[in-house]
Amino acid sequence: xxxxxxxxxxxxxxxxxxxxxxxxxxxxxxxxxxxxxxxxxxxxxxxxxxxxxxxxxxxxxxxxxxxxxxxxxxxxxxxxxxxxxxxxxxxxxxxxxxxxxxxxxxxxxxxxxxxxxxxxxxxxxxxxxxxxxxxxxxxxxxxxxxxxxxxxxxxxxxxxxxxxxxxxxxxxxxxxxxxxxxxxxxxxxxxxxxxxxxxxxxxxxxxxxxxxxxxxxxxxxxxxxxxxxxxxxxxxxxxxxxxxxxxxxxxxxxxxxxxxxxxxxxxxxxxxxxxxxxxxxxxxxxxxxxxxxxxxxxxxxxxxxxxxxxxxxxxxxxxxxxxxxxxxxxxxxxxxxxxxxxxxxxxxxxxxxxxxxxxxxxxxxxxxxxxxxxxxxxxxxxxxxxxxxxxxxxxxxxxxxxxxxxxxxxxxxxxxxxxxxxxxxxxxxxxxxxxxxxxxxxxxxxxxxxxxxxxxxxxxxxxxxxxxxxxxxxxxxxxxxxxxxxxxxxxxxxxxxxxxxxxxxxxxxxxxxxxxxxxxxxxxxxxxxxxxxxxxxxxxxxxxxxxxxxxxxxxxxxxxxxxxxxxxxxxxxxxxxxxxxxxxxxxxxxxxxxx
Length: 595
Description:
alpha/beta
């Protein structure tokens, strides 16, 4: 019996046969139909000889899925998972295991097609209806779309929507509260440059007077944790014929008076802390809620309820106002990202916990923040603000010492200016963590347990801003609170969709269906999921390695093409006019960049 070489038996190219394209028999059948002997012959007959690559691609040898996962594990282990209290809209969270296992890790959810075809997406559309209802309830608005990319881009879309809506207002100025998260300001400024808008950043309580503007963005609570009643500012903006967008923290809205009740026109924010890992900045889902009278000017898509031909309730995409769905000149936005999977996760998080569970989580966060505030005050540390939900800003002329003690205990804090530090607590914070934070900041051992035992009430939220209206009263948020009930609900919805675990998808899509299972496994590793996007870069060496590899690939591609282009242009310039030179050079550059 002849022996098969080990290299053949190792079968390192198994991934190709399982995931990429037709098998050898199918290839032979297609070649026979085309009248050629090999794939190479087919390429030689179809690709012009002048641009045909003659030599083989310089690729490393294939490895098995197990070896690839081991290599990714080595990269993941270079990331350091510190406790991050940086905040700025990103917080550590618990993904309920029933959602982690049955949604995020379930191909029935992550390979399903983007729900353009409602007849094969009834489960996801029902989940998105829940998401929209959750956003409407918590923001106090009349309508919400089916999610957006993140808080920054949602705020930029809100700016554009305000300008579209206020046609009689001739101003091109958009005002941003200086208490807004800096990354949101940066995104808006970038988008405004292309719109031709002018951005003013300042204190809305003092800087709006005498200013002409078409819109205002307010942060609630502010990036340093302060909570303010926004009613007077919103009324002032309305009197100036301008609209107001509020970027709000979704967990705080469980306890705080809603922006809608204060008169806001648009409310945006990220859903990340509702059961979606930080993931070094994303992907996440964002909510976008607004007054109903602005619905035809809103970006994204809105899910609605209809009656089908048999008289039964059915879900559909009721409004689609982006250029992918309607004529470009009539589109409100070209934004193409509706984070369906992650929006569903955050909606299911609200369904699973319900209003009582969410209040318990939000109250726990606020109580621990109160304990921390009391401990700091007892130690003589001055708080910058008297109001707070989960974030405290402290005066710290010894900030370098505090940050050094924090780093030694693998804790991340946020330095705000030269003499201020902020701390944002989250769902995963425990009483022992508060004791640790007190020691890091004060250099003293302070018993948080004793402080908590003496507290009679939570503090930080002004009485007039405490929420007193009902939230999440729809039955879906009050029915599935045991794991088995939630499991069955998720399975019922999954069974109403078509995904790769049912059949081939009738249309293509740039979703995760193209990823193999082995490629999805690292997504849920904490070494990737629990890294804060503003953590020091030395805690993200694994991410840095991946980014560097991607950058080098693009860098080499671009500059090799640029180098060739330069010499070709130089050669052509000797014989032809500048126009021909640039034209030929451009096509060569385009070809090499594409290759």
